[in-house]
Amino acid sequence: MDARGVSVLVRRARAEDAPALRAILQDTLESTWLPQLSPEAAAEARRGVRPAAYVAERGRLFRVAEADGEVVGLVDWDGDFVNALHVRGSHAGRGIGGRLMDVAEAGIAAAGFAAARLETDTFNVRSQAFYAKRGYVEADRYPDTEWNSGLTTLLLVKRLV
Question: Where does the pLDDT of residue 35 fall: very low under 50, low under 70, confident under 90, or very high at 90 and above?
Fold first, then answer.
Protein backbone atom coordinates (compact mmCIF):
# COMPACT_ATOMS: atom_id res chain seq x y z
CA MET A 1 0.00 0.00 0.00
CA ASP A 2 1.19 3.54 -0.65
CA ALA A 3 0.75 6.45 1.74
CA ARG A 4 -2.83 6.95 0.47
CA GLY A 5 -3.89 3.33 0.83
CA VAL A 6 -3.49 2.43 -2.85
CA SER A 7 -2.14 -1.06 -3.48
CA VAL A 8 1.34 -0.90 -5.08
CA LEU A 9 2.96 -3.89 -6.76
CA VAL A 10 6.67 -3.82 -7.62
CA ARG A 11 7.50 -6.23 -10.44
CA ARG A 12 9.79 -6.75 -13.41
CA ALA A 13 8.97 -4.67 -16.45
CA ARG A 14 7.23 -6.33 -19.37
CA ALA A 15 7.37 -5.44 -23.07
CA GLU A 16 3.87 -3.99 -22.92
CA ASP A 17 5.02 -1.51 -20.25
CA ALA A 18 7.19 0.39 -22.74
CA PRO A 19 4.68 3.19 -23.54
CA ALA A 20 4.06 3.83 -19.82
CA LEU A 21 7.82 3.78 -19.09
CA ARG A 22 8.49 6.32 -21.85
CA ALA A 23 5.67 8.50 -20.49
CA ILE A 24 7.06 8.37 -16.91
CA LEU A 25 10.53 9.34 -18.11
CA GLN A 26 9.15 12.17 -20.22
CA ASP A 27 6.96 13.37 -17.33
CA THR A 28 9.89 13.61 -14.92
CA LEU A 29 12.14 15.05 -17.60
CA GLU A 30 9.69 17.86 -18.26
CA SER A 31 8.86 18.60 -14.62
CA THR A 32 12.37 18.33 -13.16
CA TRP A 33 14.95 18.83 -15.86
CA LEU A 34 13.51 21.18 -18.50
CA PRO A 35 13.59 24.29 -16.28
CA GLN A 36 17.35 23.69 -15.73
CA LEU A 37 18.41 23.00 -19.32
CA SER A 38 19.75 25.33 -21.96
CA PRO A 39 17.18 26.14 -24.68
CA GLU A 40 18.94 23.78 -27.10
CA ALA A 41 19.01 20.88 -24.62
CA ALA A 42 15.39 21.57 -23.63
CA ALA A 43 14.31 21.40 -27.28
CA GLU A 44 16.05 18.04 -27.61
CA ALA A 45 14.42 16.81 -24.39
CA ARG A 46 10.95 17.77 -25.62
CA ARG A 47 11.38 15.49 -28.64
CA GLY A 48 11.36 12.47 -26.30
CA VAL A 49 14.23 10.70 -28.07
CA ARG A 50 16.24 9.94 -24.92
CA PRO A 51 13.39 8.29 -22.98
CA ALA A 52 12.48 6.16 -25.99
CA ALA A 53 16.09 5.06 -26.56
CA TYR A 54 16.61 4.31 -22.87
CA VAL A 55 13.46 2.19 -22.64
CA ALA A 56 14.39 0.36 -25.85
CA GLU A 57 17.87 -0.39 -24.49
CA ARG A 58 17.20 -1.24 -20.83
CA GLY A 59 13.45 -1.19 -20.24
CA ARG A 60 13.07 -4.95 -19.82
CA LEU A 61 15.60 -4.76 -16.94
CA PHE A 62 13.56 -2.19 -15.00
CA ARG A 63 11.52 -2.92 -11.92
CA VAL A 64 8.24 -1.05 -12.07
CA ALA A 65 5.70 0.10 -9.54
CA GLU A 66 2.12 -0.56 -10.51
CA ALA A 67 -0.71 1.19 -8.67
CA ASP A 68 -4.27 0.16 -9.42
CA GLY A 69 -3.12 -1.49 -12.65
CA GLU A 70 -1.16 1.55 -13.88
CA VAL A 71 2.64 1.63 -14.15
CA VAL A 72 3.60 4.75 -12.16
CA GLY A 73 7.30 4.34 -11.39
CA LEU A 74 10.50 2.62 -12.36
CA VAL A 75 13.96 1.84 -11.06
CA ASP A 76 16.94 0.60 -13.04
CA TRP A 77 20.32 -0.50 -11.71
CA ASP A 78 23.39 -2.20 -13.10
CA GLY A 79 25.90 -3.71 -10.69
CA ASP A 80 26.13 -1.30 -7.76
CA PHE A 81 24.93 1.75 -9.71
CA VAL A 82 21.32 2.97 -9.75
CA ASN A 83 20.86 4.37 -13.25
CA ALA A 84 17.38 5.76 -12.76
CA LEU A 85 14.54 6.18 -10.30
CA HIS A 86 11.43 7.90 -11.62
CA VAL A 87 7.89 8.20 -10.28
CA ARG A 88 5.08 9.84 -12.24
CA GLY A 89 4.42 13.30 -10.80
CA SER A 90 0.81 12.41 -10.02
CA HIS A 91 2.07 9.67 -7.68
CA ALA A 92 5.02 11.46 -6.05
CA GLY A 93 5.09 11.58 -2.26
CA ARG A 94 3.28 8.29 -1.81
CA GLY A 95 6.27 6.16 -0.85
CA ILE A 96 6.56 4.57 -4.27
CA GLY A 97 10.13 5.79 -4.82
CA GLY A 98 11.11 4.34 -1.47
CA ARG A 99 9.59 0.97 -2.36
CA LEU A 100 11.47 0.94 -5.66
CA MET A 101 14.75 1.88 -3.98
CA ASP A 102 14.22 -0.88 -1.40
CA VAL A 103 14.08 -3.37 -4.28
CA ALA A 104 17.14 -1.89 -6.01
CA GLU A 105 19.22 -1.80 -2.83
CA ALA A 106 18.24 -5.38 -1.98
CA GLY A 107 19.22 -6.47 -5.49
CA ILE A 108 22.56 -4.66 -5.27
CA ALA A 109 23.30 -6.21 -1.87
CA ALA A 110 22.25 -9.67 -3.07
CA ALA A 111 24.73 -9.33 -5.94
CA GLY A 112 27.48 -8.94 -3.34
CA PHE A 113 28.05 -5.20 -3.41
CA ALA A 114 28.73 -3.44 -0.11
CA ALA A 115 27.40 -0.07 -1.31
CA ALA A 116 24.98 1.45 -3.78
CA ARG A 117 25.93 4.44 -5.92
CA LEU A 118 23.85 6.90 -7.92
CA GLU A 119 23.95 10.40 -9.34
CA THR A 120 21.73 13.43 -9.02
CA ASP A 121 22.33 17.06 -9.84
CA THR A 122 22.91 19.93 -7.43
CA PHE A 123 19.73 21.74 -8.54
CA ASN A 124 17.58 18.71 -7.63
CA VAL A 125 17.21 19.38 -3.92
CA ARG A 126 14.12 17.16 -3.71
CA SER A 127 16.07 14.09 -4.80
CA GLN A 128 19.00 15.03 -2.56
CA ALA A 129 16.66 15.14 0.44
CA PHE A 130 15.08 11.80 -0.55
CA TYR A 131 18.45 10.08 -0.82
CA ALA A 132 19.84 11.71 2.34
CA LYS A 133 16.90 10.25 4.32
CA ARG A 134 17.86 6.84 2.92
CA GLY A 135 21.47 7.23 4.11
CA TYR A 136 23.19 8.35 0.92
CA VAL A 137 26.12 10.73 1.30
CA GLU A 138 27.96 12.83 -1.25
CA ALA A 139 31.16 11.15 -2.48
CA ASP A 140 32.04 13.46 -5.39
CA ARG A 141 30.81 16.23 -7.64
CA TYR A 142 31.68 16.95 -11.25
CA PRO A 143 30.32 18.69 -14.36
CA ASP A 144 27.20 17.12 -15.87
CA THR A 145 28.22 16.50 -19.46
CA GLU A 146 24.99 14.77 -20.49
CA TRP A 147 22.93 17.91 -21.05
CA ASN A 148 25.58 20.51 -21.96
CA SER A 149 23.80 23.01 -19.74
CA GLY A 150 26.41 23.88 -17.10
CA LEU A 151 24.91 21.59 -14.46
CA THR A 152 26.83 19.89 -11.66
CA THR A 153 26.37 16.21 -10.85
CA LEU A 154 26.62 14.73 -7.36
CA LEU A 155 27.77 11.15 -6.83
CA LEU A 156 25.96 9.72 -3.81
CA VAL A 157 26.90 6.50 -2.02
CA LYS A 158 25.16 4.39 0.62
CA ARG A 159 26.77 1.54 2.54
CA LEU A 160 24.51 -1.50 2.40
CA VAL A 161 26.32 -3.86 4.77
Answer: confident
